[in-house]
């Protein structure tokens, strides 16, 4: 079974209806416009364990929601 996300407006829906929407942050130690663009595009965090994420319900209510997901198990915690 694929990951399902609880939308407060639409109920429990398959992850395929959502788009991941976190805007990555770039450390201040990375300077220069090109270096910051490169970091933003490719140096994404890959945390292990509970992670707070933003998802957009693209094929539903078209609203943003905050989800806490355990990246080890894909279990949605809240
Ligand atoms: Zn929704």
Examine the coordinates and then state which fold CATH places here, giving the name of the CATH topology: Folate-binding fold
Q: What's the order of the H and E elements?
A: EEEHEEE
> Into which percent range does the helicity of residues fall?
10-25%
Let me know the number of strands.
Answer: 6
Largest sheet: 4 strands, antiparallel
Q: What bound compounds does this protein have? A: zinc ion
Decide which structural class fits the backbone: mainly beta
Number of helical regions? 1
**Gross geometry:** elongated
Can you tell me the residue ranges where pLDDT is under 50 for at least 5 consecutive residues? none
Number of domains as seen in the coordinates: 1
CA gyration radius, whole angstroms: 15 Å
Can you offer a commentary on this structure?
The structure is a single chain. With 78 residues, the protein is mostly beta strands. It has one domain (4-76): Folate-binding fold. Helix content is 13%, strand content 33%. It has one helix spanning 33-42, and strands at 4-7, 11-14, 19-20, 50-56, 64-70, 75-76. The relative contact order is 0.27. The chain is built from one helix and six strands. The protein is elongated. Strand 1 (4-7) and strand 2 (11-14) form a beta hairpin. The model has no long low-confidence stretch (mean pLDDT 88). Zinc ion (ZN) is lined by residues 7, 9-10, 57, 60-61, 63.
């Amino acid at each position: 079974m694929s990951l399902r996300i609880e939308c407060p407006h639409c109920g429990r829906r398959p992850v395929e209806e959502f788009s991941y929407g976190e805007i990555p942050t770039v450390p201040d130690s990375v300077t220069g416009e090109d270096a910051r663009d490169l970091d933003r595009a490719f140096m994404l965090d890959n945390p292990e364990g509970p992670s707070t994420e933003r998802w957009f319900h693209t094929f539903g209510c078209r609203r943003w929601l905050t989800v806490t997901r355990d990246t080890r198990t894909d279990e949605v915690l809240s």
